[in-house]
Amino acid sequence: MVEDRDIIAMIDHAVLAPDSTRDDVLAACALAAELGVAGVCVHPRWVRTAAEALAGSGVATGTVAGFPLGANTSETKAAEAREAIVHGADEIDMVMAITAFKSGDRTAVLDDIAAVVGAAYAAAAEQPVVKVILEMCYLTLDEKRVAAELAVEAGADFLKTSTGLGPSGATVEDVALLREVAPEGVGVKAAGGIRTLSDARALVTAGATRIGTSSTRAIADELGLR
After folding, report:
1. Annotated catalytic residue, options 77, 160, 174, 199
2. What pLDDT does residue 2 have?
3. Model confidence, pTM
4. Is the pLDDT of residue 199 over 90?
5. In this structure, are residues 55 and 75 in contact, taking their beta carbons and an 8 Å threshold?
6. Which residue of 9, 110, 128, 184 has the fewest CB atoms within a 10 Å radius of its CB?
């Protein structure tokens, strides 16, 4: 059982607001290093800045590909992942090809994810982490399971619920489903609408191994961390 005090080390601190500035990124990196979170997730433009700020901290530098709609071509997503790794990213959170999936083209979805996984692994000196955002608010229950299975088949290291920019975010039910589908060694990241310690606790209890949130400071305050 995960203790409340351990939750902070499971957080990916998100700096993905459309108007996030360089100063916001630097402040987020300082907070992340101070608290010892798992990672900081920034826009691709700020990967090099974040990687330099986090050097030696033990906090991973993360970024996104195909964000937030997943509608980019596979070649574009792979290029985003490759460039991010070259600039110092340790982790890539890519958005599934949602429109291809909803069109019934499972092969395209599988190839799309595999392209990003392959590009990230080929560019990295050390093994990177690729998280696949399924944006589950757009999927039926059956589709959620199929999408998760495709992501695992394509080599995902994590299954992730949401971008945080869709009409709804992480739910306990979705996390539990992903944990059921994910084999041992594949993580589950809950993201979207996680603002309190209670929110995070419920999702971790359901099976999340990472928590994506921009409310890290508020959660740390609830834990009495200063």
Report:
1. 160
2. 83
3. 0.97
4. yes
5. no
6. 184
Give CA–CA dist 28/70, Å, rounded.
25
Answer yes or no: is pLDDT of 1 > 80. Answer: no
Tally of helices (H runs) and strands (E runs) in the chain: 10, 8
Q: Which fold has domain 4-222?
A: TIM Barrel (3.20.20)
| Choice among 112, 157, 189, 199 that is catalytic | 189
Handedness of CA 82, 87, 92, 98 (dihedral sign): negative
Over the stretch 91-103, which tens digit does the pLDDT of each residue have?
999 999 999 999 9
Instruction: Note whether 39 and 62 are within 8 A (CB).
Output: yes
Question: Looking at 12, 93, 112, 199, which residue is catalytic?
Answer: 93
Q: Which two tokens stand for residue 107?
A: 């092969």
Distance CA 101, CA 113 (A): 12
Two structure tokens written together for 6: 């351990």
Q: How many CA atoms lie within 13 A of 165 on its CB side?
A: 13
Buried b (16+ CB within 10 A) or exposed e, 166-192: beebbbeebbbbbbebbeeebbbbbbb
Does the pLDDT at position 226 exceed 80? no
**How confident is the model over 30-85, as pLDDT tens digits?**
999 999 999 999 999 999 999 999 999 999 999 999 999 999 999 999 999 999 99
- For residue 147, give Cα distances in angstroms to 33, 99, 108, 192: 34, 12, 12, 18
Cis peptide before 68 (omega within 30 of 0): yes
Residue 160: active-site member: yes
